[in-house]
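SAMPLE LOG
Freezer: B-3
Tube label: C17
Construct: single chain, 432 aa
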Amino acid sequence: MTENGLNSESMRSGPGLPRARVLALADAIDVVRRLDAPADARLRQFFRSRPQMGQQDRGFVAEGAFAYLRRKRSIEALARTDEPRRLALATLVRETGASVRELEPAITAEEREWLAAFKSRMREPLAPAVAADLPDWLWERLGETMGETARAAFARSAAEAAPMDLRVNAMKATREDALAALAADGLDVAATPWSPWGLRVRGRPMLARHAWFADGRIEVQDEGSQLVASLVAPRRGEMVVDFCAGAGGKTLALGALMRSQGRLYAFDTVERRLTQLKPRLARSGLSNVHPQQIAHERDTRIKRLAGKADRVLVDAPCTGTGTLRRNPDLKWRHQPVDVAELAAKQAAILASASTLVKPGGRLVYATCSVLPEENERIVDAFLAAHAEFARGDATAEMKRAGIALDTGTELRLSTAEHGCDAFYAAILERRA
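STRUCTURE (predicted):
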């Protein structure tokens, strides 16, 4: 669901928008605006409760709901109401360019007058954080860490819909073959600028039943996530641990780099996430992946691997501020206290994961956050407390992988600059 982006053409249908679609969007906005759970999970529940909805209607509603979440603060400020139906109308007018005439079949005379007033207010200036569609605390924090120019660029990129990125499974195909095959099927597809396995698709094609997806030759994965996996640089025959595997996107990328040789553990504390990995793993053709649920970062399964791993990836749980294009609800669900709580958890996870690394091995710490509290500060504190580790060179590793990307000693990906989700990653080498 989080892969959905706003496409104004797909959200408009002929001379007028059907009343049922507008009503459904209003109901969906009413659900996701509560912010009591991830938006994609709430929308899945919403669609399950409406099995009669067709695919196009679901796409319309999902795209509209995510458009609302991306621009929630400015839409509500201009709409001057929290009534879901009017928020839906405001989203359609402001974010898709729908005209009042197109909405005629779905609105009342009173709503027509309200929309006219709303459109006139769209030219009014808004407070900077409101115009940027960010909460005050995050707007201020980004100003402190980025400066005004970078903060403005971040806000603009975070309010855009993310493209659909794919990773070609090097075990089964080449990127050149994938480009040719998908283009022949009518997809608007191009190679990603950095990842040698990445493809970027324009629009929202239905790939779930595509032959290349069904047999594991391609997987949906953001280019930034692919680049983080490349920093781990696992070799065939090694023991590798994905310490916070989640649904396994990076796990599968690591397994392909290992050519399915060696042993690759996928740890996570949430059974549901590992369950989501199983069908992806079956499609991938990998035989060296071993998913294991752990209770916490001190689980006995971890202790048994102490000092044995050649490579360990810690893709730590974080605020997700680098993925706001895909997960716009995160900016409204998080509070400053969450950053502090997550930082404590990140430090504990990194310390535990480090015990797995053998002398001469590599530990990669990564987040999809842009906040230094979750990134540089965690790594600096870890290195200060663990003299057996030294900071590696991310740019040098990228060069070895044939990737012409220079972000300094650490990997720092910016949505505004690099076009992918914003990731931070540091290489930590254990001295032999």
